[in-house]
Batch of 2 targets.
Target 1
Amino acid sequence: MPELPEVHTIAVDLNKHLSNAVIKSIEIKNNFNKKIIEVTRISKNIVLELSSETFLIFHLAMTGRLLIRKSDRPNDDWERIILTLAKNGKTGQLRFCDTRMFGKAEVIKKEMINKLKSKYGPDILADSLSPEEFLSVLVAKRTNIKNALLDQSVVSGIGNIYANDLLWMSKTHPLTKTNSIKIAKAKELLNNAKEIIKEAILHRGSTLSDKMFVDAFGKYGTHQNYFRVYDQRNCKNCGTKIKFEKINSRGTYYCPTCQVLKQ
DNA sequence: ATGTTTGTTCCGAT
DNA sequence: CATCGGAACAAACA
């Protein structure tokens, strides 16, 4: 049982030999042996529930990928973490890849799950989210509607692409102050948000021109072919040239004819 | 070369 | 003290 002198001895040796060494990869050997019980989602986190009340959480951020691969398949681009798995007598891998390194992976215990959930506002797909609650969380964030929609602690699950399309579909200017929104508009925004998100799920997500997003099998999504205003030139409703500007430092597309700022 | 990017967090300003 | 907004994180691409 190492006490201070033993720990000190090791720390000094490690410091002498390893300071300035670069960690190229990390391998976790065997006997982790936890089973993946179920995979779910909390906001934009992918949650692997493991045995013994342990959870493995991945956040893909902008460029993360999780790929199901055969173990002998050649390396993928930008591999960061490889899990080797056994199921029904066969082995395979789950590969977490990310070019920009904005993605995250962490292991947490069950009691931290509630803390994770508490960071987020109501999930946009939750049946329990009423228009009244939706409106009240938006209004509580005293800013413009686009900024509020993108704040995951206000309402969780809407990203920049879908916020643009949602505001276009709801004929709402992105700079509309949340406190000027009425319940009828909140209803419209909520219904349209659910419709857009569900449609994009049916299309298995959006893959932009950088080809970064792929599903767990490496296949592209198709929802980019159904964008309403994001990355579009002309309004699909009236033909007006779509405006592009940075709002809260995020690329924002809107139709100046259909989405008039009124307040 | 510079500007852009699907997300989130942190820090300074208000 | 609470809240907001922008910079930063890092890499690839046009």
Note: The longest helix of chain A spans residues 183-202.
Target 2
Amino acid sequence: MQKPFQINRAYKEVQQITVAVDCLIFGFNQGNLELLLVHRGFEPERDKWSLIGGFVVNDEDLDDAAYRVLRELTGLEDVYMEQVHAFGKADRDPYERVISVTYSALVLKENYDDELVRSYKAQWFPIDALPQLIFDHEEMVEAAMRRLRRRVKTGPVGFNLLPEKFTLPQLQRLYEAILGEKIDKRNFRKKLSAMNFLIRLDEKDKSESKKGAFLYRFDEEKYNDVKHFSI
Amino acid sequence: MQKPFQINRAYKEVQQITVAVDCLIFGFNQGNLELLLVHRGFEPERDKWSLIGGFVVNDEDLDDAAYRVLRELTGLEDVYMEQVHAFGKADRDPYERVISVTYSALVLKENYDDELVRSYKAQWFPIDALPQLIFDHEEMVEAAMRRLRRRVKTGPVGFNLLPEKFTLPQLQRLYEAILGEKIDKRNFRKKLSAMNFLIRLDEKDKSESKKGAFLYRFDEEKYNDVKHFSI
DNA sequence: CCAAAAGTGTTGGAAATACACCCATGC
DNA sequence: GCATGGGTGTATTTCCAACACTTTTGG
């Protein structure tokens, strides 16, 4: 009879595996939801594009590895990021067995280090016009999008894709881009003003219209009072 | 200047890490949602309890590793199982660095191999009366419960915890156990009969009441017609 | 005959949806 | 003065929650 598992934990003899993190870096620009990808200049799958990845080293928390990879590519710190899924088919990477854990990051396109990104041959693509991706990276994008859609409906995470001050038309376009559907302007604003964590400032942004739209900011305190969010 | 990541993929030199899967095996028994745990008979954390785990070997899909671990402990095949989360703090296992990917399984308690389970010193515990667990396993339970609650509200996965034929009172008790709250009988049944994928059989189960309750079965075909579920 | 669980509809309130016009401004 | 996008309220429908009595039958 076999021994219980936990007694089998002859740790040192257990096979070890290469573990990677792949980051789905989302940005919002001129009404488009975009994803940051790097060009793959070598075989196999040369000239396809790939998510930004890196390997996890032994004394590093998995989450920290994802933050490191993000920082190395964009120079950004303090970014909203969450784990999406672990992809572990034995043959998902034809070169060697690699388990990849994906993370979804919402970054402010205006903040990242453009130099750095260019030096990595990285490029932003609108989410609905992605190039061919390597391996199972399209599946990763799908999984991250499903989660992002759910998240923005149930929590105040979308604001991470907008600057501190933003207008309601901007916010609505962001939601439309993420959810992939038109939203009724009046109903959208009604919901937002019901949960009252948006503060209207005495400033207008005239860059996108003649009339100008009021700027708002998200008030974390007020949100924490009720912790309710539903779009 | 650093080279782009993907060009750094000197795979062979990358540090490798022990990867485990831990299974949250849920069962439903006499109105209680239960979790199958194994007793840990050795240090560190001797006499605490732990999820059922095992290590991923190199030519094995991550999902397959989880199925293997489940099968080895319970003898069950064809079980509903889904990945929950990858736990990767560098020091989560004090003995060695192990990344653990958790999977949530919904099993039919009447089907599993009792002999096998006992031989592993495994035991079922009601979800609201768990013993002390090792490492970060309580966090794993929390994560799996959150997901299970969401899943049973939005999809027909709860039926995996009941036999082929079941009564509505049983189903309701299952939902109450998972969601941790009382449910109104009439509203519950109204929702179920609105989505009409439950077939009432001409049999009653009299084991739990004098009057007896009609047996139902879940009709997958009918569910697939509309693919709508909401409790 | 009575205790215990199964079964069954209606109503009121809340939330979601649909929908159309005026306003301010730059050109 | 007109084209462009910003801003606002109401009526309808749909969904959800609350709620109480009758039925069956084993003991």
Note: Residues 1-9 of chain B have pLDDT under 50 and may be disordered.
